[in-house]
Amino acid sequence: MEVNYENGLNLKATELRLGLPGSDEPERQTTLRPNKRTLSEISCSGMTDDGNDDRRQSAPPAKAQVVGWPPIRSYRKNCLQAKKDEVEGGAVRYVKVSVDGAAYLRKIDLKAYRSYPELLKALEKMFELTIGEYSEREGYNGSEYAPTYEDKDGDWMLVGDVLWEMFISSCKRLRIMKGSEARGMGCV
Amino acid sequence: MGSSELKRSKDSVSDESARRSSFPDEVLERVLSLLKSHRDRSSVSLVCKDWYNAERWSRTHVFIGNCYSVTPEIVARRFPRIRSVTLKGKPRFSDFNLVPENWGADIHAWLVVFAAKYPFLEELRLKRMAISDESLEFLAISFPNFKALSLLSCDGFSTNGLAAIATHCKNLTELDIQENGIDDKGGSWLSCFPERFMSLEVLNFANLTSDINFDALEKLVGRCKSMRVLKLNRSVSLEQLQRLLVSAPQLAELGTGSFSQELTIREYEELESTLSICKNMHTLSGLWDAKGIYLPALYPACSHLTFLNLSYAALQSVELAKLLAHCPRLKRLWVLDTVEDKGLEAVGLNCPLLEELRVFPADPFDDEIVHGVTEAGFVAVSFGCPRLHYVLYFCRQMTNAAVATIVQNCPDFTHFRLCIMNPGQPDYLTNEPMDEAFGAVVKTCTKLQRLSVSGLLTDLTFEYIGRYAKNLETLSVAFAGRSDWGMQCVLGGCSKLRKLEIRDCPFGNAALLSGLEKYESMRSLWMSACNVTMNGCRLLAREMPRLNVEVMKEDGSDESQADKVYVYRSIAGPRRDAPPSVLTL
Predict the structure, then answer these.
(1) Considering only CB atoms, which chain B residues are within 8 Å of A80?
(2) Do B364 and A55 touch (CB under 8 A)?
(3) Separation of alpha carbons B432 and B429, rounded Å
(4) pLDDT tens string for chain A (188 positions)?
């Protein structure tokens, strides 16, 4: 992953991730469904950008090398492919955010942020609270709040433990815990 | 007009064979003008010369199943009073990219003749034709009475052509754009309908992806009080849909657009109450991004629903089941296989009047998928829906026993299209070929008109088809058969066969040539990736001058192989607009 020096910030330095600082990035988990990603990548690259191109000409599928099989109209094929591409490389990713003690929930678009610090800052601003610094060993020390999320398996995890990309794809909802419960999180 | 009356008039005409008929032409024409079916009309025209003439003067709609079987000049000469034309062009396998680009079936030559001979043309319905923006513009300005345009599976045009139609066709009642290869350059075409224009009854632009000017659409729908069909594209949101429905509660057919948006409770309730006043709705489609939680808003509108097209909505089984509980009158249902067998069980339980079921695959190219539907779903539907007569079913596994059960439950199949998606796959329980499955279909379903076969099939399947499928008109075969004998059985046995399309089968010249006389009674034959050679095709062309024999060669293939063959009867002679890749023999 390239070092992102956007606005003079070395975001990599503040990136929350597994591994010791300075170590190579662990292998990127690109997808939980590797086959589908390959298929959509190939199909996407196969489609030309020429506006005059006959839209019914879509790239041959990576797996089934037989042209025109199964017999599905090009229009339908293109529609389904477009939908799949959207779902996987989606432009928005809204999740609900609850805060212990708050009257109602909020919604945020995870794709609007590029890293944990950005997200946490936005949450702090939205709910007018302080979340504090993440540390791998102690979780969120120095505040009575701890940001957690429910992942695809239904488990409640501490925000910050996994790669940002993986977090985005597996986070179903956020809950900012408060008090003793919060302090309990982060202790292995 | 009853057939007995027809017989009496026939008798009286033949009695007066030497004298002119005392049955005035005008009366005969008037009577014949009540005949709508083009097949009845064809029969009538064969009775005698007077009837031939009366029929041709009274015909207002002409149906041409293969645009190259006849020329526009011949059509215009025979039928002087045509108001409505239906034209089909490319072979069906062009839908699956098997036909080369620029193959033909261009509408323009037809339009030029029609502009001269049928200036009062009102309707044009095209399927698998090539149509350019220039042609659309020509159409728009050449026919002042033009009312209805329907384009299905066509290509070659863009939204600019639609703009021309909207701008110039002052009497337009129908604009139906379906599943075409259209170049979507933006949604401004819709704003081209004039301010005072209010005659539109059918508007289907579900095909298009760009945003349209919603304000213009809302005003248009508000003005067109006779609108009964409105099929929106994906860019129209739920809130916008609700606003449109408020102006058009009389809609009979609705395509909902994306049916997706974050709604507040109040907005949801508004949508629900608006939908509940759509009591005329019998057809519902769209729902591209429908979320399960909003589907209940549809329930009150579903009570009279007869056709539900969910083939672009990836619903789960539970969502479908809940929806179907509100659709007791359903006759036609199209779904994606995301509903799985459980969803199809719900179909069997909730839709006793079902006549047609189509199950499309959500992930047709992914072998690793374990989902989708199996034989169990199909069987479940057959138990609950005895009136089922049309099925299109994509699945990854099937058994002979299941199909036997299905046709036992539903013996009235007219259209049986089964696609086991892995080519040449046997019965997954017994590992035997699927011959007995299709044997059961043709033995039990005597009314069968259309059949698509799949799975591992030997020549036995085709023996069965030739022996039993006496009403079969259309047969589609892929990756099947063992020898020429299979195809010979079909050509020899299926007396009513009109369309035969074959791909990737071991049928060669002997099979091709066994149908010499047969092809003149058929509309067309397609054979690709079979064992037919150029010599075989040349022989066929030589023996049968009234057939057009066209060969499409693939790059880098053997000189002597005829990769793709298209044979069709024609009174127009060989076509002159074939591209270099198509050889006419």
Answers:
(1) 362-364
(2) no
(3) 8
(4) 444 444 445 555 555 555 455 444 443 333 333 333 333 333 333 333 333 333 333 433 444 468 899 999 988 888 887 777 666 666 677 888 999 888 888 888 888 888 888 899 889 888 888 887 888 877 887 788 899 999 888 889 999 888 887 888 888 899 999 877 766 655 44
d(CA B504, CA B497): 20
Q: Which residues of B touch A76 (CB under 8 A)?
A: 179, 311-312, 360
- CA B39, distance to chain mean position in Å, is 18
Q: Which among A66, A70, A107 has the least Cβ separation from residue B394?
A: A70
Distances in Å between the Cα of B168 and the Cα atoms of B136, B171, B211 are 10, 9, 22
Does residue A70 have a cis bond before it (omega within 30 degrees)? yes
A interface residues, B as partner, C-beta within 8 Å:
35-36, 39, 51-52, 54-58, 61-64, 66-77, 79-80, 83-84, 94, 107
B365–A64 CB contact, under 8 Å: yes
Rounded Cα gap, residues B261 and A94, in angstroms: 12
Q: Is the ipTM of this complex over 0.90?
A: no
Closest by CA to B354, choosing from B307, B309, B320, is: B307
Burial, B268: exposed, middle or buried (Cβ in 10 Å; 0-12, 13-18, 19+)? Answer: middle
* pTM for this model (two decimals): 0.78
B101/A54 CB distance under 8 A: yes
Best interface-test mutation with B: which of A31, A54, A77, A94 has the largest number of B CBs within 10 A? A54
Whole-number Å distance between alpha carbons of B160 and A156 = 53
